[in-house]
């Protein structure tokens, strides 16, 4: 299957540099300190943030600052094929560790010594770019929880087809053979907090791919920025 | 003297607020980087004016709401309210309930240790821990340091104003302080020893 | 899930319930407003979302064609699974929700485990070597009391929504059967009119209450889950399951009353649910949850 048709369109009708529709809602879980629900195309993720509270993992507690603990779980009906994996498989755990590292560098952890922040993501429906969507959901939930951060992290997964960058790929495009670059930036600017590459890409195509990912991440930042502003202006009416 | 101006605008983490200068400094919910003040919270910008000697300094703050709910964690030097959960030979285990005036949310209580030598400033060797505290007591204490890996914080009550503020007698009745070392049941009048806190206002009420 | 009440607050609730009054103005036998949607998940064959008070859960049904040696020996046509998302409560982080999830899926399994609950179940057996297995998966997104009631409603609504692909069986070599797709994409639905619902009856003081809130739950002494299947519209439901849940102890004499109350509650709930399911015949697959 070709990712790009002969007229340069993708299977879902997008142009190569076009991101998927984003809609989101904040403060969806009353139990949590902060929460967010995000839809990126058909990928749907709910994220809750608890804390900062006393570290349950004593070994990780430090006087320097708080630790971040991420749990990813996937609903069994999230993909077309039913998979009974929920939590704890190696791939999911690896992704959770990457999220922890990314957010530990962004949260102003020095304000909360010996404390811990728990982030829980529930993937309700999965349609590609899972890691990116989780990061975007976590960013919104952390902002909603009022946890001090140096900026809002946004993330995008992109691919390169015959040297042409294709941004924000869906599950149909996420085939094994094509390269996948996941890039997370801070506040849509130049600071990169997470980068991951799967499969191989030719050196010559890498800079174009990076530039496209960067631009896409900035566009997503604009979306999240607008969503947060809108949410806050609604709460302001109550004040 | 401080005065709040009106909430100006809505910002999210990473937004540039103002260029920093000698007359402007970052307050809560903001941070300074490369000569600019950035927001670290999603909220509303407040500009507070603070008089320092002759000069007026602007303090930039980002708050979530007018009342300003903040996440609090215990810090060294802060006075905390704690509940005694168990008593040992050498230390009492406590669960922190409040940090200064802010109650910790339910389920987010921190554990802490009060060691025998930190109960009083004087006569440290003669103290019998069981004659100072009993499980269930609510105490005021000061955080003196971070603990080791077993506990998060170390507490001290070696000040007149710190110690037991509320206690329940063995018989289950409420007790009120009578002097520095005793509390008395409100119904039976039975006295039990405690390290009593002399909270100025509370003692006035008792008379 | 973490509601802490002082003794005085608990006494207020218990005394109120004894007078037949609850904090939100309901009487002891009333449910909170319930919202049922179906066709919410694009990746399933049937799905539903149920909200009642603070409770919010998703249910998805997936059909799987199973090949086996002898389909008459394989019993589980319906498989229930429940997952407590950590979004619902910090207690569910890690494996914290597994025990509770097990209790819920077990109760659903027993409520459905009889011939009367879904009379159509035989239709799922296609040939001596093939049958459909329906996976009913429930995810608890938010916890606000009455989870088992909501889970049973969600399961019934999702099964009602489920479309199973029509297939034809054909004789093959060595007395085996093979499965083929017929011309065109045809689907059929299970008849779930008599699928059971479950009502949790909670004992507060000496009074029985349905659909407890989190605050009321902290005052409860014990709870009884009553599963009932309505065989014919307007008749009293058949009891398909009863079990005590969440510890505590009950007076033997009061159990009859509790079961009776559960049966009544199930009867009323079932009538409302069938009305709702029949009214909403068109759904937009894959629509957004944001409403």
UniProtKB/TrEMBL annotation, chain A:
Entry keyword annotation includes Cytoplasm: yes
GO BP terms in the entry: nuclear mRNA surveillance; poly(A)-dependent snoRNA 3'-end processing; rRNA catabolic process; rRNA processing; U4 snRNA 3'-end processing
Top-level taxon of the source organism: Eukaryota
InterPro entries named in the record: ExoRNase_PH_dom1 (IPR001247), ExoRNase_PH_dom2 (IPR015847), ExoRNase_PH_dom2_sf (IPR036345), PNPase/RNase_PH_dom_sf (IPR027408), Ribosomal_Su5_D2-typ_SF (IPR020568), RNase_PH (IPR050080)
Location relative to the cell: Cytoplasm; Nucleus, Nucleolus; Nucleus, Nucleoplasm
One Pfam family this sequence matches: RNase_PH_C
Function noted in UniProt: Non-catalytic component of the RNA exosome complex which has 3'->5' exoribonuclease activity and participates in a multitude of cellular RNA processing and degradation events.
Similarity comment: Belongs to the RNase PH family.
Subunit composition and interactions: Component of the RNA exosome complex.
The protein, known as: Putative exosome complex component RRP41
Organism: Pristionchus pacificus
Automatic annotation (TrEMBL), chain B:
Domain Exosome complex component CSL4 C-terminal span(s) in chain numbering: 107-145
Molecular function terms, GO-annotated: RNA binding
Name of the protein: Uncharacterized protein
Protein location: Nucleus, Nucleolus
Listed SUPFAM superfamilies: Nucleic acid-binding proteins, Ribosomal L27 protein-like
Xref: Pfam families: ECR1_N (PF14382), EXOSC1 (PF10447)
Domain Exosome complex component N-terminal: 10-47
Origin species: Pristionchus pacificus (Parasitic nematode worm)
Main location: nucleus
Gene Ontology CC: one annotated term: nucleolus
GO BP: RNA processing
Keywords: Cytoplasm, Exosome
TrEMBL record, chain C:
Location in or out of the cell: Cytoplasm; Nucleus, Nucleolus
Gene3D superfamilies, A to Z: GHMP Kinase, N-terminal domain
Membrane-spanning segments: none
InterPro entries cross-referenced by the UniProt entry: ExoRNase_PH_dom1, ExoRNase_PH_dom2_sf, Exosome_comp_Rrp42_subfam, PNPase/RNase_PH_dom_sf, Ribosomal_Su5_D2-typ_SF
Pfam families for the chain: RNase_PH
UniProt keyword terms in alphabetical order: Cytoplasm, Exosome
Record CDD domains: RNase_PH_RRP42 (cd11367)
Main location as per UniProt: cytoplasm
A GO CC annotation given for this chain: nucleolus
GO biological process annotation, one example: TRAMP-dependent tRNA surveillance pathway
GO MF entries: mRNA 3'-UTR AU-rich region binding
Residues in Exoribonuclease phosphorolytic domain copies: 31-164
Record family assignment: Belongs to the RNase PH family.
Protein name as annotated: Ribosomal RNA-processing protein 42
Organism: Pristionchus pacificus
